[in-house]
């Protein structure tokens, strides 16, 4: 039944793309490998169909992902808001409309949106919704859409698809690494993707500021609830002292989650004085999407996020308490 309705949604999404032109393509704020890969994969697909499109994100695409776009550039809304509005929108990897951030402001009142995503918490905010919660990454859905649309798998498109799979599965290790993920990855490798090069670039290499931040982050490692909950925190001061960027915090949460006996690992990042972004990771016992939702966030059972007001200490106090309740 799931498969049937997915096929129907694939056809609807394909029809939406064929029928329209002049698309705005947007992914979530602070794009990760799947968001960046999905944005550029969508661009290559629209290009192959001879469509016009504009790529926009609220902020910058992390530098390491930019080569995926080839000649494409992504308009940074926060730096140069476009002067025009868009009526035809494709959002990728966004669980809810709010995830596109300020890009909301350049959408026409009567805009039509195609929502392509893989989050279980996706609230079907599009006119057409192509959402598959058992897909490991949005690029997995885009792969199916490319097949439906008969789009050729070029080297550029393949790199984008492989990158989204690689990064959202933590290097093909997380529980979302399904047979289908490995089948698509195998297909991409067979078509010439250099998997080891992408893995080194996106999973192995660390910048000096990133390692410095890791050192500081690890020194904050704390435990609660009988060592079943662990967390790290990063203050604005830590960022300033190390010269690290937001992207340099990628993966830091895993050091809390990976400690033996820990059920929920978290990273608390001070975004502005009084605003803390929380990343939650679960070993599977606790549904961290549920916990994140209580703070206005969301995500997946094993990986979720939310933003909490207050100082780092206050945010830690509030969220650690809620996590404790979920572990009872
Ligand atoms: P991260 O901790 O890496 O920022 O996010 C982990 C997962 O939770 C991702 O799948 C991401 O899409 C989701 N997520 C993170 N922050 C938020 C948020 O504020 N709202 C929602 N709905 N999902 C979030
Ligand atoms: Mn994703």
User: What is the SS-derived class?
Assistant: alpha/beta
Series of H and E elements: HEHEHEEEEHHHHHEEHHEEHEEH
Kindly report the CATH topology of the largest domain: inorganic pyrophosphatase (n-terminal core)
Q: Shape from CA axes?
A: globular
How much beta, percentage-wise? 15-25%
Number of helices: 12
Mean pLDDT: 96
**CATH class value of the largest domain:** Alpha Beta
Q: Name the helicity range.
A: 25-40%
CATH-derived architecture of the largest domain: Alpha-Beta Complex
| Tally of structural domains | 2
**Number of strand segments:** 12
Distance between the termini: 35 Å
Give me the CATH superfamily of the largest domain: inorganic pyrophosphatase (n-terminal core)
Strand arrangement within the widest β-sheet reads 3-2-1-4-5-6
How would you sum up the major sheet? Answer: 6 strands, parallel
Describe the secondary-structure layout.
Layout: H1 2-19, E1 23-27, H2 33-48, E2 53-57, H3 63-66, E3 75-76, E4 86-92, E5 107-117, E6 128-131, H4 138-149, H5 155-168, H6 179-190, H7 195-204, H8 208-218, E7 222-224, E8 229-234, H9 236-242, H10 254-257, E9 264-272, E10 275-282, H11 288-294, E11 298-299, E12 303-309, H12 312-326
Parallel strand pairs: 1-2, 1-4, 2-3, 4-5, 5-6, 8-9
Antiparallel strand pairs: 7-8, 9-10, 10-12, 11-12
Helix pairs in contact: 1-4, 2-4, 2-5, 4-5, 5-6, 5-7
Residues 34, 93, 118, 137-138, 168 line the site of manganese (II) ion (MN).
GO molecular function, one term: nucleic acid binding
Enzyme class: hydrolase
Domain DDH: 23-164
